[in-house]
């Protein structure tokens, strides 16, 4: 097109479209322009210029400067240019206020993720079965004395569970794969799960439906609790009407539609099933009528939200007279609607929803006949709030059925620091007691004062529901499968027995622990300060601490590969060596790589994970008879990393290999990264960070608590990440307690109990314990230092026997912090460091109360002995993180580059056993051990 033609076209265009420059009443005005007017101004630079018409030059603006937008001489201020320092302070304040608002439970705008595996079912007055977010099944059982937790997980081959049922004294469970299992008693009178796959008539099925006809997706127990109705993945309606022998009936599906959810079974009408299709239509199924399937339609031309959400409904009788029946359902738009049968006529009624709320589930509750004015429904929103909808009985003449009455909605909020799970129905345990699954994996009980909570068992009397009684929330803890702190019950006699709780002498293991100097203002912390997931658009303002390469090398310089047989060492120059045993001989082997190594971050199933000088995550593993390198950072979504978990295994404990096994790492930008390593299907996942800080280091990965990664933020506070719910939580911490950013170590005396501790150093070099017990919850305990002139360096650990912890002092000595055999008091023991005089390794084992004496005299004697041997030898212990080489062995690095090993002797005492020379150490003493390579 020529330039003249182009100009002519533009003139015609402007004449025909007068709204091009000014947005008039014409409908032509671009929508993009309207959106731009609603955009919030964002400053991204510190320098701006203005064109001066008189001098015809650009002049730099002096900040602050108001930005004005003018349309048709209508000028409005849209922003202000300020100095970036002021902007940052302002942003930090706004972020802090938003966090405070979210933690106080006032933020109702963040939509929660859908927890698809969660379900609740009441088996009896003393038993509630829960399917957790992790896909595990556990039972909350009242043993007559207290609530206990019993595991009922499906076998590993069955996969994850999504629901459980009880019918005719038989317990069934549905798996995520769509398979049904029955619980039976095995040969040893132990419950076992056996396959209970549906057997149906395939003649009525199409060829495309045969593969998914027996894959179940959803199940509802009938009103008489004698049958179960299921919908399959192919949209069929199946009925299980007999267990022994199994009796299955295939009811098919509506013509031209499917069964996506079962809304009601025999409650609206006996033997009538109401279903919802995936397109949101309501169907009625009656096997005794023709046609069997009937569609409930809306009035043509209706503007109401008519598409139904595939979910369980709730039926109430007698609201509008003795013969009236109401089926309450939810729409896909999050509104409450009613399908009412009154005087043999069906009618749709829209009840709406609370203002700015999206409803996702209905919790069925029994209707109290003594409630004279109203019935109640309990509904959960997508933001985790629980609302009660009070339905007036017998509305008077002229009442507007289709109008929402705002006074009918009662907001019960949610428990402190937790929200109700989105899209999951709660359970009425007893009148006045409702249990809701929480988004973080725990349970919340909404109950009347005095008749609910963790300490209240099932009551046998009758409680009348009164409108004047206000409900309160209690949080019920969940087991370790969900990342929480509820212990499983035991078969031994006592209050935690799985069958009958008996008053017995309490286990006072924790009660007799010496309460060591707690910080002023410290208190037990039973709840967590929870954060919602950080928004991707949130510009987090926080102090940025550069993590030095030396810090990484210090904490991940040594790593065990095979317990008692092989470990790796990285030299100061980045060389990688392996010290291994073959045919009763120890030797060093060098692993060559083009780049210098900075740390060994973990191992899994024979594969070693390392980080090089460019922060790439590498795998060193054996392929057939050859050793090879794999670059994980170069994989899809791979990241550069600077740190990992402290250790891979607990001494004496074998890890269970699962399909969910993963290695957690810290990126150079301070994010928590998850690398799935199971089955060699390497997959990266960004777990982000807590909203108030980035991550400095990982304290513990799934040792103290399964499915939980404890981290220290760059603000020196403790956080945890739940890999099941993918939620971050901040633990209570005194503002005076400033933690070191170095990794910590976990100590768990027994794998059968959740009692245990995290040990972390404070910023000023003192030992800090974060202890959990079922009686006191979480508590901070300060252990201090082993001496007045000594502070602790490096990272604490390793731990042994559930009551012993090794630490390195600033004086180069090894100290043991141990709990006495009677569990009454923690003590210090000094093991000094290994030094050689006449080829004999000596040790010092001073205990309390003389631990604080001055060691200068003995240290000077050692220096004099070494001066004449080799000036390059310094047997004092370096700040390098030691490693647990075996159940009875720990390896330390000496300041001269050699290694020292301590072993547990037959008397139960630790002693220095040998010094191991290394290929890079300049100390020639005992160097023959390094020459074997």
UniProtKB/TrEMBL annotation:
N-terminal signal peptide: 1-22
| Residues in coiled coil | none
Tell me the domain of life.
Answer: Eukaryota
Q: Matching SUPFAM superfamilies, A to Z? A: Fucose-specific lectin
**Keyword line:** Signal
Q: Which protein, by its recorded name, is this?
A: Magnesium-chelatase subunit H
Question: From which source organism is this entry?
Answer: Heracleum sosnowskyi
């Amino acid at each position: 097109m020529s330039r003249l033609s182009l100009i002519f076209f533009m003139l015609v265009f402007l004449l025909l479209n007068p709204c091009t420059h000014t947005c008039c009443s014409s409908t032509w005005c671009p929508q993009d322009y309207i959106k731009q007017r609603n955009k919030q101004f964002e400053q991204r630079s510190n320098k701006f210029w203005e064109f001066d018409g008189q001098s015809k030059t650009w002049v730099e603006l002096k900040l602050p400067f108001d930005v004005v937008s003018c349309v048709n001489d209508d000028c409005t201020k849209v922003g202000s240019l300020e100095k970036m320092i002021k902007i940052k302070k302002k942003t930090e304040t706004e972020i802090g206020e938003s966090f405070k608002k979210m933690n106080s439970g006032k933020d109702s705008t963040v939509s929660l993720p859908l927890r698809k595996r969660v379900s609740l079912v009441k088996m009896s007055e003393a038993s509630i079965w829960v399917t957790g977010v992790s896909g595990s099944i556990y039972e909350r059982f009242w043993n007559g004395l207290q609530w206990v937790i019993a595991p009922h997980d499906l076998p590993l081959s069955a996969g994850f569970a999504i629901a459980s049922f009880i019918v005719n004294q038989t317990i069934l469970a549905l798996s995520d794969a769509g398979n049904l299992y029955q619980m039976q008693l095995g040969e040893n009178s132990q419950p076992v799960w056996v396959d209970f796959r549906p057997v149906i008539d395939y003649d009525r099925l199409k060829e495309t439906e045969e593969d998914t006809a027996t894959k179940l997706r959803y199940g509802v127990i009938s009103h008489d609790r004698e049958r179960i109705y299921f919908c399959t993945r192919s949209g069929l309606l199946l009925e299980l009407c007999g267990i022994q022998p199994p009796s299955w009936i295939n009811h098919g599906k509506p013509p031209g539609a499917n069964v996506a959810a079962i809304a009601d079974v025999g409650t609206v009408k006996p033997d009538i099933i109401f279903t919802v299709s995936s397109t949101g239509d309501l169907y009625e199924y009656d096997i005794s009528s023709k046609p069997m399937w009937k569609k409930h339609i809306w009035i043509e031309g209706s503007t109401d939200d008519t598409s139904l959400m595939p979910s369980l409904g709730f039926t109430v009788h007698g609201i509008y007279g003795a013969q009236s029946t109401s089926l309450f359902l939810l729409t896909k738009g999050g509104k409450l609607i009613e399908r009412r049968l009154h005087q043999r006529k069906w009618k749709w009624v829209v009840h709406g929803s609370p203002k700015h709320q999206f409803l996702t589930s209905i919790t069925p509750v029994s209707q109290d006949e003594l409630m004279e004015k109203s019935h109640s429904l309990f509904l959960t929103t997508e933001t985790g709030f629980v609302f009660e909808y009070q339905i007036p009985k017998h509305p008077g003449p002229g009442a507007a059925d289709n109008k929402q009455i705002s006074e009918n909605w009662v907001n019960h909020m949610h428990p402190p620091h937790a929200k109700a799970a989105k899209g999951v129905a709660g359970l009425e345990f007893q009148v006045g007691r409702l249990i809701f699954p929480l988004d973080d994996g725990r349970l919340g009980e909404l109950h009347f004062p005095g008749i609910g909570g963790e300490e209240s068992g099932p009551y046998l009397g009758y409680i009348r529901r009164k409108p004047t009684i206000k409900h309160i929330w209690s949080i019920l803890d969940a087991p370790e499968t969900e990342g929480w702190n509820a212990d499983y019950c035991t078969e031994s006699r006592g209050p935690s027995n799985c069958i009958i709780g008996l008053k017995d002498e309490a286990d006072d293991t924790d009660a007799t622990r010496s309460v060591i100097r707690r910080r002023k203002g410290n208190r037990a912390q039973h709840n967590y300060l929870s954060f919602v997931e950080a928004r991707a658009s949130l510009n987090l303002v926080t102090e940025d601490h550069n993590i030095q390469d030396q810090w990484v090398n210090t904490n991940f310089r040594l790593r065990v590969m095979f317990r008692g047989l092989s470990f790796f060492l990285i030299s100061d120059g980045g060389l990688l060596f392996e010290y291994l045993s073959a045919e009763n001989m120890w030797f060093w082997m060098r692993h060559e790589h083009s780049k210098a190594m900075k740390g060994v971050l973990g191992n899994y199933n024979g594969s070693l994970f390392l980080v090089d000088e460019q922060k790439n995550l590498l795998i060193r593993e054996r392929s057939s008879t050859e050793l090879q390198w794999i670059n994980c950072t170069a994989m899809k979504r791979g990241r550069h990393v600077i740190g990992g978990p402290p250790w891979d295994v607990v001494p004496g404990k074998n890890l269970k290999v699962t399909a969910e096994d993963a290695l957690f790492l810290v990126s150079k930008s301070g994010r928590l990264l998850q690398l799935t390593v199971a089955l060699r299907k390497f997959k990266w996942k960004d777990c982000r960070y807590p909203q108030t800080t980035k991550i400095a280091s990982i304290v513990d990965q799934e040792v103290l608590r399964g499915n939980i990664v404890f981290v220290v933020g760059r603000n020196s506070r403790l956080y945890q990440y739940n890999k099941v719910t993918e939620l971050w939580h901040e633990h209570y911490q005194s503002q005076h307690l400033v933690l070191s950013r170095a990794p910590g170590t976990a100590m768990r005396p027994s794998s059968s109990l959740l009692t245990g501790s995290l040990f972390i150093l404070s910023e000023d070099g003192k030992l800090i314990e974060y202890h959990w017990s079922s009686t006191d919850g979480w508590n901070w305990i300060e252990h201090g230092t082993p001496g007045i002139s000594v502070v602790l360096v490096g990272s604490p650990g390793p731990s042994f026997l559930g009551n012993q912890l090794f630490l390195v002092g600033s004086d180069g000595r090894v100290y043991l912090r141990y709990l006495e055999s009677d569990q009454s008091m923690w003590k210090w023991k000094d093991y000094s460091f290994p030094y050689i005089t006449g080829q004999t390794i000596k040790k010092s084992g001073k205990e309390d109360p003389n631990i604080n004496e001055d060691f200068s005299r003995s240290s000077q004697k050692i220096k004099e002995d070494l001066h004449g041997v080799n000036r390059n030898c310094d047997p004092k212990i370096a700040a390098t993180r030691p490693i647990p080489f075996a159940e009875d062995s720990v390896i330390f690095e000496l300041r001269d580059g050699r290694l020292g090993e301590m072993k547990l002797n037959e008397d139960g005492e630790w002693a220095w056993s040998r010094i191991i020379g290394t290929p890079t150490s300049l100390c020639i003493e005992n160097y023959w051990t390094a020459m074997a390579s």
